[in-house]
Write a structure and sequence with these properties.
It is a single chain. By secondary structure, this protein is mainly alpha-helical. It contains 16 helices and four strands.
Length: about 400
């Protein structure tokens, strides 16, 4: 056992140094920057397009006095709901042929007109591609009803007392933190666990693994490679989290202190995030490393790892049921299931302040990591060099 651990440490130190001290590791650290930049660029473009298409334009054919009252009613509605959620009104002077004017407005393309309000406040009529339950038609009914009502004195001012946080807002922020934590844990594990497969395929194709296997036990090779990639991944995550915190400190008003803290606090949440990432990585990385031992080409790796990836997506969907209700029956089952337990417990760390479930969950996950490492090591030993004993079918039947 001592020789195996010593050999695993030697393999882990070799692979960790070869990964971290290479020039490619710098591009590996810069890798998440490009999807974030592209996501931010296309997200801003999509938000601008959505804002332009979701705010319908309504032409109002009415006198200046009627349009002014409708515009005031629209502004009051926008102050309560937000300007980007309320229809835009465009004033149009009445023409001699009202029907032809309405048809011309509905055929207009710059800007596209969703509906036309004609007849003034005395006999309003809405024409356009609207239904009775359409949000635009409901807003127009509210605007017309308030504009047609007799002017009333302004309501008395309401005294507002703001607090730093309330239970409702805090629960919403913590649920959002839990959701983001689960997504990052899932994507980082899925992204980084593939590194160990690519390295194994490269060493198998170059026959380097045969030289290493002649000097160290195969189980030590399996464990050492897995923990080396885990250490490199944790180093990358620390760099990314530090860079993200620095960016938030520079961009957001108040910096990191302005973020809503998780239930256990940011230091404990980040520490548990690293622990649960390690557990999730070891569980999934052992599976991918076993797949890499059975494959000899990159195409075989993709074919064999595809079902595991789809299954992990299903596990992620199962783990998301714990967000918002970490004490429900579904959340407890997801926390007990070993492959979804790290993601569920990370979400719980954001929503619940108790510590004992995390201690029990980490012990449970360590047990399953040991089991999967043992099973994966045996499969790795039998497949990577075809060194396992083979029993013929007829011999096994005769015995």
């Amino acid at each position: 056992m001592t020789r195996m651990l010593r050999s695993a440490y030697v393999i882990a130190r070799r692979d960790f140094a070869a990964t971290v001290l290479s020039k490619a590791f710098i591009f590996f650290l810069l890798g998440p920057l490009f999807p974030l930049l592209l996501g931010g660029l296309f997200g801003s473009i999509g938000a601008r397009v959505a804002a332009q298409t979701e705010r319908p334009v309504v032409a109002v054919v009415a006198s200046p006095a009627d349009f002014a009252r409708m515009a005031q009613a629209r502004d009051r509605l926008a102050s309560a709901m937000g300007d980007r959620f309320v229809v835009q009104l465009r004033a149009v002077a009445p023409a001699a042929d009202s029907d032809a004017q309405v048809r011309a407005l509905l055929a207009q393309t710059e800007p596209p007109i969703r509906a036309v309000v004609s007849g003034g406040l005395a006999r309003p009529r809405v024409t356009g591609g609207l239904s009775a339950g359409d949000p635009t038609s409901r807003q127009l009914r509210l605007i017309l009803a308030e504009a047609a009502a007799a002017p009333s004195p302004p309501p008395p001012p309401v005294a507002m007392s703001s607090t730093s946080a309330s239970s409702g807002s805090l629960a919403k922020d913590r649920a959002f933190t839990a959701q983001v934590g689960q997504m990052l844990l899932f994507f980082l594990t899925l992204l980084l666990s593939g590194m160990v497969m690519s390295q194994l395929i490269e060493e198998k194709s170059n026959k380097i693994i045969e030289v290493i296997a002649a000097a160290v036990p195969i189980d030590a090779l399996f464990v050492g490679k897995l923990f080396a990639m885990l250490a490199a991944s944790v180093l990358g995550i620390i760099v990314w989290v530090g860079s993200g915190a620095l960016l938030i400190q520079l961009v957001k008003h108040g910096g990191v202190a302005a973020l809503a803290p998780p239930a256990l606090g940011w230091p404990a949440f980040l520490a548990l995030g690293l622990v649960y990432f390690a557990m999730n990585y070891l569980l999934l990385g052992a599976v991918f490393l076993t797949i890499g031992a059975q494959a000899s080409t990159a195409r075989e790796v993709q074919t064999l790892s595809m079902p595991v990836t789809f299954f992990q997506v299903l596990v992620f969907g199962f783990a998301t049921t714990a967000i918002g209700s970490p004490d429900s029956a579904e959340a407890i089952v997801a926390a007990v299931f070993p492959l979804s337990s790290p993601m569920v417990m990370l979400a719980r760390a954001a929503e619940r302040p108790d510590w004992w479930p995390h201690l029990a969950a980490v012990a449970w996950q360590i047990l399953w990591v040991a089991v999967i490492l043992h099973v994966g090591g045996r499969l790795f030993r039998k497949t990577v060099l075809k060194s396992g004993p083979r029993t013929r079918f007829w011999r096994g039947k005769r015995a």
